[in-house]
Amino acid sequence: MKKSIFIFLLAINCFICASSNDDKGAHYNTYGGKPITLKNIVGLAPKMPKEIDQVTDGLLKKHTDYVKLLAKTPRPLTLKSYAEHYQSYTQALSDNQNKIGPCIGKSHFVVRFNNDNEIKNAHNCILDVTDFRTRLSHLIYASGQGSVLEKRISMADIELNKLLDKGIPPCQDLGTLAAFLRCKEAKEKFNLELIDVPNTYLKHIPGQPKNASDENYAIFQEWVPNIKELQELDAKERVTELKNMSYEALKEAHTLIVYAALWNHLEKNLSIDTTSSESKRRYCFVNIRPPFNNRPQDFYYQGKQGEFKYAEDVSKSLDRFVTGWHDDYKEYPDAGLTEKNQVEYWKRLTQDDKKLMALIKKHNVEPSFLNK
Q: In the prediction, which pLDDT does 24 show?
């Protein structure tokens, strides 16, 4: 009798383990069982540690106008107001490079505060913010005008104001928090130890309304010390690091990309923990933003097109881990996995995820590396 009970319990345990291993993309738009929406994203944000809370309080109090300017969308939006705001925006970025700290990035960037010596430990926090022009391109896309990467605003005074009048907020920065929540859940659920992501928090901007919007809340992250991005290495070092990336690390990278739908750009995302040994290298995904092509109306894969967008985005991100940066960026021709056995392992990881494969096939968005 005892033997039968033991066998039964063992079978149950095997079933649970098998289910959890095949559960990377399940509930692709939830955190803790709750849907990630603009209505509840503020409530889902993790609590800041006391020290980080104090530092960011000080930074926002001292640099409120600067943070507001970075997050602002001029209203009403016209070609004239765009030009005026862009001038003051770029001037502020330039003026504060030395006063506060460097702004790193293009379409979106991180603001470091390592030149602010008045606020203790300011260097431990960074502000993650979308570039003003990129924010507008998202809104153009949301309004149904043009491409998500379109920077022209010839229709701004008509279409974008209609959109803003409807109360549809810019929310690309809030999407970073959504992606972090999914990464956090994946790390806890699958006990991931070799690939980390920056701790990410939400902070209300003083004087702004409380509704969820990039204009009202700032995304702060803890600075990750002792890391070096792949793009900082020369070509030979970069290829060597990728060749030596272990199967265990590849598996964790695959898990995070699938679970959080990270818009992974390998060359400008993956960083090496320089304190780790070559035999057991640890890494960090420094850019945990979701794809740029999500509309605010369907925040983080909500809505009728949510499942399709999730499948499409994950498929493209998995592809990019193999092939590297976008095809039209020739500056990194050796980005991506170059070892045949690593590519085969990447294929196997993808094919073994039955739920993901079912979604990919359902929406006809199979990644190209599966056919190589």
A: 56
